[in-house]
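Morning F.,

Quick status update on the modeling queue. The single chain you submitted on Monday has been processed. Sequence for confirmation:
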Amino acid sequence: METWKTAAYLRLSREDGDKVESDSIANQHKQLEQYLAEHPELELADYYADDGYTGTNFDRPAFRRMEEDIHQGKVNCVLVKDLSRFGRDYIEVGRYLEKVFPALGVRFIAVNDHVDSERGRYDMLLPMKNLFNTQYARDISDKVRSAIHTKQRRGEFVGAFASYGYQKDPDNHNHLLIDPPAAQVVQRIFDLFEQGEGKVRIAKLLNAEGVPSPSEYKRLSGERYHNGRRLGQATYWTYATVHRILQNQMYVGDMEQGRALRPTMHGKAKQKARADWTVVPHTHEAIIDRAQWERVQELLGKRTRQLNFEQNQSPFAGFLRCGDCGRAMVKTRSAGGIYYSCGSYKRYGPTVCSKHSISHKVLEEIVLADLNRIIAAVQDWKKLADERAECPQRNFQAEQSRLEISLERIRERKKRAYEDYQDGLLGREDYLRYREDYERQEKTLNAQLEQLAQAGGSDPLHHPWVEALLRYGKLTELDRVTVAETIKQIRVFGDGHIEITYTFSNELGLLEA
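C-alpha cells below.
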C-alpha cells in the first residue's frame, strides 16, 4: 500500500460568513482526525491551521508553510474538510487543483465534497462548487461593506482602533470618548505648531521628553495594534506622525472615515481624495476647538512646498539605509561635498539613532571596488556572455511566461471592475478611472510581449553595465542604472561597516568605510 505524507489543512474566517459552530477549527480538526484514522495509507505530516484568514486569497501563513513543505518533499497529499476551507477564489482554487498539484504529484482530498484526485479526473460539478464558494464570499463581502458604509454615514465609529487621543466607549464601541493623557499631547501638538514650531521640531521635543508615539502608546495600553506605515524599529515620533495628527478632523468632534476604497473583493485599497471621505460633524467630544483647527489648516497650506526629487538625484536614492535603525539615509551638501547621514538622527536627534555619515565619493569608490572584486572572481566574462547567448531560449520563455501571467491578471481585474460596476458596487467615474488604468497596463504589457517576440529571445543579460564590462573588463563609473540593476540595498552602520546586498548574487558585501 502506497503511503501519502498528508497535510491536514484547516481554515476559518467570519469575514467569509463561515458558520462558527460547524466550521470551527476544533470541528475541522476532529473530522480530519477521524478521516485519517479510517484511511491508514494517509500518514499525517502536520496540521496547518489558518484561524481568522479569508479564503478569497492564498496569502495565509499556514498555507504558505504547507506550500513550502510540499516543495521540500515533506508533503505529497493535502486533506481538507471541504473545498471552501481550501479557498473561495474559484480561479486560484482551479489553478492549484488542475495545474499546480498535478505537476508536483500532490494528491488532493476534500472530505465533504467527495473529491479525491487519486480516483481520476474531478467531476464536472467541481468548477460549479468553486464558483459557488467564490460568489458566496463575494456576497458576504458586499453585505459587510454595505453595513460598514451605512454605519459610517450615521456617524458611528467602525474602525478597529480609535484615533490617538480617543478610546472606544466601553458601553458602545461605535462611540468615542476622550483619552485624557493622549488628548493632552494632541492639544500640545496643535498649540506648538500654531506658535511656529515645525513638525520635525515638535517630534524631536516629544522624543526628548520620552512621550510614547501613538503606536507605542497603543501597545503600552495593551492594544494589539499594528501600523503598516511604521518601520519595524520605529517606536518614536516622526514628521509624518505629527503631520497626520494636525490634519485629522476627528479632533474637532467630526467623525472622519472612509479614507480608502477597496473596489473589488480581491482589490488593493486605494486612497480616496479627501473631498470623498465620509465626514459626519459633531459625533463626539472635541479635543481641539474649531477655530484653532481652521487656523492650523491655513498654516499647513501656507507651509506646504513641492520638492523636485528628480533634480540632482543621487544614484543611491532609494537604496541607501541606516543599518542601525532602518531609516533611509538623507543627502546633505557641505563645503567638503555631498554626504549621506542617518535620516532618524538628522531629524530627531540622538534619542533615536547615532550620528554617522559617509561621503558620496567614498561610498562610490567602495561600491565600485566591491562590484569589480566580484566581477574579477568570474574567470571569463566574455565566455560566459557567449555561452548565455548560445542558449537564450530558456530566458526568453521565462520572460514571456511572466509577461503573459501579468497580462492575464490585469484582464481579470478589468473584468472584475466591470462586474462591480454592473452590480452597483462601483460608481461610473471610479469604474472609468480603473478601466483606463488597467488598459494602460495592458497596453504596456502587450508592447513588451511584442518587443520580446521581435527580439526573438535575445539574452536579457545584455544590460548597459554588462556591455561596459565586456568592453573594459571592469566597471569604470557608477550611475543610477548600474546601481538599480546590480544592487538591492546598501546599509551603513554607525560602527563604520557597510553591507551591500546584490541583485545577481546571494553574496553579501561586508565592507569598512
